[in-house]
Write a structure and sequence with these properties.
Distance between the termini of chain A: 23 Å
Number of strands of chain A: 4
Number of strands of chain B: 2
Helix content of chain B: 55-70%
Helix content of chain A: over 70%
Number of domains of chain A: 1
Oligomer: heterodimer
Order of helices and strands of chain A: HHHEEEHHHHHHHHHHHEH
Largest sheet of chain B: 2 strands, antiparallel
Radius of gyration of chain B: 32 Å
């Protein structure tokens, strides 16, 4: 009997005009998102290849990898490679590239493509995260009220159906419907994307399937919400209500998150940060000068050692300020993310960051990788320099400039820091970034899924209790 | 009879709980967005004041002509509260040797770990929320009456069908127009009170045209809602139609354009223009680094008293704080002349190529207006940027103004001669001229250390060169008058009005043959 009702429910829904139109729209959107993401993927990949070529050109220039030049004038690049993840989301709020000084972590960040003014982007996140929530709400907002109006609810209770069972059958049929409208077009979209970009990879296929699986509790949340609302007296008012709820989660929370996050966790202006960095350096340098009778300011050979120590310590002081600056940025970003995570949509995107190694999740690992690379390169440079007999082994930013003074005024063969070429120039361009292992990721995903699962349970309990007390006449 | 029905229609709307809820939501959202945007604008104004202060201080402390780096600083546009427009940094640093292609920021708060895609302004509220709310109010205006039987009753009265549909449309339109106009004018008045000293004629022109445009927008969606309610017998079905139409107009068309149609139409041309830009930039780089004649090559000048750590090798910027050897001065003069003749034309060409990229984007935007003339959301979005004065076109104007300022500076240097003589780099007075390297070494019997001490001593104690900074015209905010505004919006407005008239005709025709039973 249960089966019969379930089949009847599903058949009725399949015949519903709403379902048919939504299904067509979803098919179109999934196909369009594959095409649009392929276009974006190509442009990001071109940019990435251009970066790669530029770097290869640079390292073939001998002057570029001269150890003394590496200290002050050269940059370390850590890049997150463009990947098929772009089909899910472009994650355009977060940088893909970190560019830092070789010997200190002082990052500037950038991303592929231009930042747009658009709120919506055509990708899976838009469809699965934003649109299907709305569609499930619109499909389910009159579930109970319709049955009540047509009298079938009363009829079913006469047949001796338990109310809970009716509710569960409704819920299951909506969830099956969700799978019917999502899985076939999503698979088609994935195959089309792989074909257009030539990026077929089994790993990403499993990742896309996983993300489809993860989207189920989010859809379920909106189905329960719709069922809950459909028990209200005036179901036409309910439509205004559900539109508002959807808008609240999709637009108002994520959009205001960045505005309120900035107010709650303010950062300083770029000028203030610049001044703080500069004064951290010069205060320390002046202190050295005062302590050492102005010897830190002089680049005569006998003062170079003091000068190098002074300069390097001052740079370390500046580095501390830069670290604080980055911490401020991170604090603000975390605050914005915390506020945004009130919305299930934002939660969903955050989970996808873990699945696809993108966004804020990846940014943290990119920062760690950059810091590790800075230390590694620094150690290798010092080690290589120690083998150079011409070097005075003075590791500081002005080493190259002071070497020029040494040779011009003192005719010295010695240089402050080695002029040999760095033996491992490839370390200056990092594209392999290590993140959590599968188990670690799973734990993080479960932690993020927990709130939405709890919300599902709460809504379900609410709906069951409300339905038990509902006057079905 | 008509007035009576119209009054009845509006009263009915006022009594409906659905409408009541919708209006409250809209007013709440309007107030929230307005307050948020005003706070943001206040922040921008504070940053602008700081920027001007920083610039004035920098200009007051310059030590030689090569240090003159005036800034073009754009005042935040008050009307950006209603339309954020094309977001840019508002400061351009004008340097002798840099092509002006982008804006930077001085005092902005910029979180470099996070670039949020926010667009929460009144325009977004109108295009996104107001459009949906109008449809939610009007989706059952005709078939709802049919369902309860009042439509049939009304048609038995001596009332023309045209009058009925007109009063339906006017009922929704007047109601929504009032709901929008009331908070809008209150917000305008509050801005007039808060920012009385920042008010310009621009603001009033923008405010009027924006209101005018919104009224048209409301008219379109009122008509659309009524049209949809005649397309189906059941209000539930027309509700689905309304939501779908809204999704297509508001979300699917704009994103399909942005991510599929626009890239396929313009990517090739943008790529070509970008290539041109890179070609000119590379040529300019060659002119300054590789194609230099020996007598203008600064790298051949002996080291020592040039503060050339930021020398030619690193980034092509030549900044020398110490004027010294005669030969250095001669060489730098020739270097400047070489730049004036060979380099400047190339950076101007690269700037033009950069503008071409912009123009392609602007053309694509205009094309979008023409292709989607039936979509008021697209038209409203683009027109409101033009009305507020923060579109891509306005950004180009800003870039051009900064370039004019740079060209004025360079041309002044050429006519007054300081671009080609020691005054460009001069830091210390002429009497400290050190002579050539050989002369110096001879003066100190070949003792390099003494030479170095002498130079250091000059650097620490010498009197600075006193220079008169040329007066540059200040950057002014572009003002547009009524005569300038109308051509900006004329084409889109004609298309917009055309689509409204078209929709009205379709409804008229449809309702004449509508089965009211």
């Amino acid at each position: 009997m249960n089966q019969i009702i379930l089949m009847k429910d599903i058949r009725l829904m399949l015949k519903d005009l709403k379902f048919q139109i939504f299904f067509l729209i979803l098919v179109a959107l999934f196909i369009l998102s594959a095409i649009s993401s392929a276009v974006t993927y190509h442009s990001h990949n071109d940019e990435y290849q251009a970066d790669l070529n530029r770097f290869n050109e640079l390292v073939s220039n001998e002057n570029y990898t001269k150890l003394a030049n590496l200290i002050n004038h050269r940059r370390l690049n850590v890049l997150s490679q463009p990947s098929p993840a772009i089909l899910f989301s472009s994650y355009s709020s977060f940088p893909d590239k970190i560019n830092s000084r070789v010997i200190f972590y002082s990052p500037t960040l950038d991303k592929y493509g231009q930042s747009g003014n658009g709120v919506f982007r055509l990708n899976w996140f838009f469809i699965l995260g934003i649109l299907t929530g709305f569609i499930m709400l619109v499909m389910s907002f009159e579930t109970i009220s319709q049955e009540k109006r047509s009298g079938t609810l009363r009829l079913m209770s006469v047949y001796g159906f338990k109310r809970q069972k009716i509710l569960w059958i409704k819920y299951i049929s909506y969830m099956l419907l969700y799978l019917i409208i999502i899985i076939p077009p999503a698979l088609a979209s994935m195959i089309l994307f792989f074909a257009l970009t030539g990026t077929w990879s089994a790993v990403f296929m499993w990742k896309f399937l996983l993300i489809l699986l993860i989207s189920i509790p989010f859809a379920s949340f909106f189905v329960w919400l719709g069922i809950f609302i459909s028990m209200g007296k005036n179901y036409r008012n309910a439509i205004v209500m559900i539109v508002f709820i959807w808008l609240f989660f999709v637009i108002i929370v994520p959009q205001s998150a960045s505005i309120f996050g900035k107010q709650l966790s303010p950062i300083k202006t770029t000028t203030e940060y610049r001044q703080a960095r500069s004064s951290a350096f010069w205060d320390e340098f002046q202190a050295w000068n005062e302590r050492e009778d102005d010897r830190a300011g002089s680049n005569t050979p006998e003062n170079l050692e003091i000068r190098a120590a002074a300069y390097h310590t001052s740079e370390e002081k500046r580095d501390v300020v830069v670290q604080k600056e980055v911490e401020d940025y991170m604090r603000q970003t975390m605050m914005i993310q915390k506020i945004a995570s009130i919305s299930p949509f934002a939660q969903f995107e955050m989970i996808s960051e873990i699945v696809f190694d993108k966004g804020l999740y990846m940014l943290n690992y990119m920062q760690d990788t950059t810091k590790r690379s800075v230390n590694q390169i620094t150690n290798l440079m010092i080690e290589q320099d120690s083998r150079d007999e011409n070097s005075m082994h003075l590791f500081y930013g002005w080493a190259e400039m002071d070497s020029n003074v040494l040779s011009f005024f003192y005719g010295s063969d010695k240089v402050a820091f080695s002029h040999e070429l760095f033996e491992q120039p490839n370390l200056l361009f990092v594209t392999e970034i290590e993140t959590d292992d599968a188990w670690g990721k799973m734990v993080k995903i479960m932690m993020r899924l927990l709130p939405i699962l709890i919300l599902n349970l709460v809504l379900m309990a609410g709906a069951v209790v409300k339905f038990e007390r509902l006057d079905i006449r | 009879m008509f007035t009576k029905l119209l009054n009845h229609e509006i009263l009915n709307l006022l009594k409906s709980r659905r409408v009541y809820l919708t209006v409250i939501m809209f007013l709440l959202l309007f107030t929230t967005v307005f307050v948020v945007r005003v706070l943001d604008y206040q922040k921008q104004v504070n940053q602008y004041i700081e920027d001007v202060k920083v610039n004035d201080e920098a200009m007051a402390n310059i030590e030689n002509y090569s240090h003159i780096t005036p800034r073009a600083i754009q005042e935040p546009i008050l009307f950006s509260i209603y339309n954020e427009g094309y977001r840019i940094q508002r400061v351009i640093n004008i340097k002798f040797y840099e092509a002006i292609i982008e804006t930077t920021s001085i005092n902005a708060e910029r979180n470099m770990l996070f670039f949020p895609d926010t667009e929460l302004d009144i325009t977004f509220l109108i295009t996104f929320f107001l459009s949906l709310f109008i449809l939610l109010i009007s989706y059952d205006s005709v078939n709802g009456e049919k369902q309860v039987g009042t439509l049939r009753l009304l048609m038995t009265y001596p009332l023309k069908r045209q009058s009925f549909i007109l009063k339906k449309m006017l009922g929704v339109f007047i109601f929504v127009a009032f709901v929008f106009t009331m908070p809008y004018f209150l917000s305008i008045i509050s801005l007039m009170v808060i920012y009385a000293n920042l008010l310009t004629i621009n603001f009033f022109i923008s405010a009027f045209f924006y209101w005018f445009l919104t009224i048209f927008f409301i008219l379109f969606f009122s008509l659309l809602g009524i049209f949809l309610s005649t397309c189906s017998k059941s209000p539930n079905q027309s509700l689905v139609y309304a939501i779908l139409t809204w999704m297509v107009l508001c979300i699917i068309i704009p994103i399909s354009w942005d991510y599929i149609i626009s890239p396929s139409l313009s990517n090739e041309r943008i790529h070509q223009a970008t290539q041109n830009y890179h070609t000119y930039t590379t040529q300019a780089k060659r002119a300054i680094e590789h194609d230099l004649p020996d007598d203008a090559n600064l790298r051949l000048v002996p080291m020592g008293i040039w503060t050339s750590s930021a020398g030619i090798e690193n980034d092509g910027i030549h900044e020398m704080s110490l004027w010294g050897y005669d030969e250095t001065y001669e060489q730098s003069s020739r270097f400047q002349s070489h730049l004036y003749e060979n380099y400047y034309p190339l950076i101007r060409a690269s700037e033009q190529a950069y503008d071409d990229v912009y123009r392609v984007r602007i053309n694509t935007e205009n094309m979008m207006n023409r292709v989607f003339f039936f979509n008021p959301i697209v038209i409203f979005h683009n027109l409101s940027m033009k009305i507020a004065g923060n579109s891509r076109v306005d950004h180009l104007v800003f870039l051009h103004t900064a370039r004019e300022l740079r060209d004025d500076l360079v041309n002044l240097g050429a006519t007054e001669g300081w671009l080609f003589d020691y005054r460009f780099y001069a830091h210390f007075k002429e009497e400290y001229n050190l002579g050539s390297r050989e002369e110096m070494l001879a003066r100190f019997d070949g003792d390099r250390e003494l030479v170095w001490e002498y130079v250091n001593d000059i650097e620490e104690n010498a009197e600075m060169y006193e220079m008169e900074v040329p007066v540059f015209r200040k950057y002014e905010q572009p003002h547009f008058t009524l005569a300038m505004m109308i051509p900006r919006i004329f084409e889109s407005m004609v298309l917009f009005v055309g689509s409204i008239v078209g929709l009205w005709v379709v409804i008229w025709w449809r309702f004449l043959g509508y089965d009211v039973r």
